[in-house]
Amino acid sequence: MIRSDSFAKYLGIECRFWEKDNFYVLQTDYREDLLSKGFKRYDDLELKNKVYKEVTFNDIESAYSVSTFCTYKGFKFFVESAFNGKYTLRPLEEAMNHFNDFPKQGYDPVYKAEQNEIEMLWEERKPIENFVFDTESILDVTKNMKKLNSINWIAFKENKIYLENTPITVGINVNDWLEEFNALEYSIEQIIPDENRNYITFSAFPNIVISSLEDIIIDISVYSYQFQSSPYYKGDIFIFEKRLEVPFLSDNIEKYFPDIKVKRPPSRVFNRFSARESVDYFVNERVKIEISIGRSPELVSRISLVYKD
């Protein structure tokens, strides 16, 4: 995750923060245990994967501003954003001089780079006036470019799922993937009576489930929002670059999968699907996306990338 903002530490928790009236607002990713520390959920669905808390100046242990930079083609660039493994970069003075590419009226130089073109990636932290500065001035995050340490959004793209900027697919060894790409805490549950089949879930994101058979990933499932009371993934979901509107209505399947073969068209009179039914979208001969209807026929409960052996 690319960061360019102000951050504060509170009870050892790093949060984005800003001043509001006579107090400060802390914001961080949702975790169940934070609710017992006074953090609150947002009512706005756009912020469903975030929590916040209002605190005083004295509650903040330290604070600092963060900007992310990288080296690209041997020069230092400011990293504006990263999505689906593509980085948006803005050149600094040395790079502008080298490439003879300068801002002018109506134009700012912006570069696009693939993740494998980024040579180094780091954060620079600077003090914020009046606050304690108690952190590293420079943090090398190059090794984390491929390491999964948060899942604020998910994207289905061709035969892969991107957990933020980290790709995962079916038909590969799950242990190799976890070793190379994952930095999140996870658990493995054995499926009885099939001792060769396991479910892998991330502790902070239990509604993303990886299924493996003899250590080969055969299914990656995301449980989308249905009801406020039902367990669901709280981040954004993108399907072929379209942001999923929640709840995912079964009548809207063609909106995200225009080429899908569905026998029954949308109807205002009858449910076009039965509860727990599934619809398949074939990516290629070995991979499909399975859209699973929930207990309510009008809602989709799960979207899965499935390996067809």
Task: Provide structural commentary.
The protein contains three helices and 23 strands. It is mainly beta. It folds into two domains: 145 residues, no CATH class; 155 residues. The strands form three sheets. Strands 1, 2, 3, 4, 5, 6, 7, 8, 9, 10 and 11 form an eleven-stranded antiparallel beta sheet that branches. The longest helix has 8 residues. The relative contact order is 0.10.
What is the element layout, followed by pairings?
Blueprint lengths: L4 E6 L2 E8 L2 E7 L10 E2 L8 E6 L6 E11 L2 E9 L2 E6 L1 H7 L11 E4 L3 E10 L10 E3 L12 E5 L2 E4 L2 E3 L5 H8 L4 E5 L6 E6 L2 E9 L2 E8 L12 E4 L2 E2 L9 H4 L21 E5 L4 E7 L6 E8 L2
Parallel strand pairs: 12-19
Antiparallel strand pairs: 1-2, 1-6, 2-3, 3-5, 4-5, 6-7, 6-10, 7-8, 8-9, 10-11, 12-13, 13-14, 15-16, 16-17, 17-18, 18-23, 19-20, 21-22, 22-23
Name some characteristics of this structure.
7-stranded antiparallel sheet, mainly beta, 309 residues, 3 helices, 45% strand, single chain, 2 domains, 11-stranded antiparallel sheet
Compact summary:
By secondary structure, the protein is mostly beta strands.
Helix-strand string: EEEEEEEEHEEEEEEHEEEEEEHEEE
Strand content: 35-45%
Category by helix and strand content: mainly beta
Tell me, what's the shape? globular
Quaternary status of these chains?
Answer: single chain
Q: What's the tally of helices?
A: 3
Low-confidence stretches: none
- What would you report as the Rg, rounded to the nearest angstrom? 22 Å
Task: Tell me, rounded to a whole number, the average pLDDT.
Answer: 90
The end-to-end distance, rounded to whole angstroms, is 34 Å
- Give the beta-strand count: 23
